[in-house]
Give the backbone structure.
Amino acid sequence: MQLSEFTERLNAELQIDQWAGADYAVNGLQVGPESTDIGHVAFAVDGVVETAEQAAAAGADLLVVHHGISWGGIDRITDKEYERVQALLDADIALYAAHAPLDGHDEYGNAARLCDRLGLDIVGPFGENGPGHVGQRGHAPTPFSTDELRDELTTLEGADEIQVLDFGPAELSDIAVLTGSGTDWLDEARELGVDALITGEGKQPAYHEAREAGISVFLAGHYATETLGVTALRSLTETWGLETTYVSHPTGL
């Protein structure tokens, strides 16, 4: 398959154009000539030297990631940017990144996949951000206790320790999910009246905001909560007849 065809198909699936100018990350193809042929695609959370090297070792032609190398554009290719680009060029590997489009996508998104993993019925979007949403709101048919939900989250890849701000009700049914760094949306969670918010990492004000709102916040790790989107894209790509590899590189954060 031509890289240009792959890019067009994935751009369409993820509605990349909808996020133009609204996401500080640059979405879509970041490195590589579109005229090249690809047959093997690697998937990882982060586009860094280590994952590029692992993709190269697997024989991949393209690396698809959630966190790419261009955030608001690249002014200079020096230091870490140079090293990351060099790792790709040395191995002749292209790089495709999907940030916000992969967070809240209804089918392949990190939040949607996490809702599915937890057995939540999606009842609507969550996490308003520019032209769309970067999370989902789910309902648990059978309510979770705090310990039960924490235990489920520990099964995520790289979820070494789940930190919980336990300020919600004893039974957790209405749950907002926004992976990565999602505590900035606690006000929206409060307005919706959810019982809990699942995200990756938090900020200091989240403690008081969650306590005052009566919401439990589960901090399951930025990496751990964002493995599900790229693995969903891997499954999609396999239906296109391409060989795939998943590159695991947990950060513990």
